[in-house]
Amino acid sequence: MEQVLKLTGRIAFWASVISSVLVALVSYRFVPLGVEIAMDFVSHNLAGNSLALFAHIAVAPVALFLMPFQFMSGLRRKHPSLHRWVGRIYVAAVVISGVAGFQLAFHSTAGVFASAGFASLAVVWLWTTLGALYFALTRQFARHRDWMLRSAALTFAAVTLRVYLGSSMALGAEFQVAYPIISWACWMPNAILVETYLLMRGRRSYLLANQTR
Ligand code: HEM
Fold first, then answer.
1. Å from CA of 57 to ligand 1 middle
2. What residue stretch is flagged as signal peptide (predicted)?
3. Residue range(s) defining the domain that contains residue 118
4. How far is the CA of 74 from the centre of ligand 1 (A)?
5. What atom of ligand 1 comes closest to residue 187's alpha carbon?
6. Is any atom of ligand 1 closer than 6 Å to the C-beta of 39?
7. Each residue of 100-129: pLDDT tens digit?
8. Cβ pair 42, 105 in contact under 8 A
9. 130, 163 in Cβ contact below 8 A?
């Protein structure tokens, strides 16, 4: 059973590495194509809100691209200073693109429910990432790891959003109906999954500690 769980974990990890890197790279399609062609439904931000738009679409993919490498324990052990530098860039990217994402949320054409979903995501993304930074700076590394896991689950919303949006469009759902739901569904289950994992892990180590007494 332990082996099956380990293998499932590895497959899930590598699937998330590949999908994060791919979504991050594809996000730069606006460079050769322009925002109007590459991502038409956010192009209304070009008039009067272009700073937030570019701060978000140019910087958020950096966070998504870097995030999985921070969880590679071999890399972290071999190159601790690289881990710290990549961590600083990740936090800076989250702060810039999170604040910009919060601003963009209120310009979404999909309505108040979608705005609330994205704005809440931006707030919890900034909170968990700055929390993780605080625990690293105060050398509470176990808590730093847990809070970075929370932050990463929210960064991964960029991937889950595109999976849900693509699937709902393929199933013939209407954009104006699907998108507001997805603005919440792209991150809530990710956050719940991480909290469940952290709770189960805490319970398991408590049981193990009491067994060996
Ligand atoms: C986790 C916090 C995030 C929040 C709160 C957020 C928020 C938003 C908002 C509000 C929009 C505009 C949607 C609309 O007008 O309806 C948007 C678009 C976009 N976001 Fe994010 N975002 C987040 C994370 C990311 C990440 C990690 C990436 C990395 C790839 C990303 C890349 C993009 C891109 C490329 C667009 C343009 C439209 C598209 O291609 O889908 N975002 N985001």
1. 7
2. none
3. 2-211
4. 31
5. 1
6. yes
7. 999 999 999 999 999 999 999 999 999 999
8. no
9. no
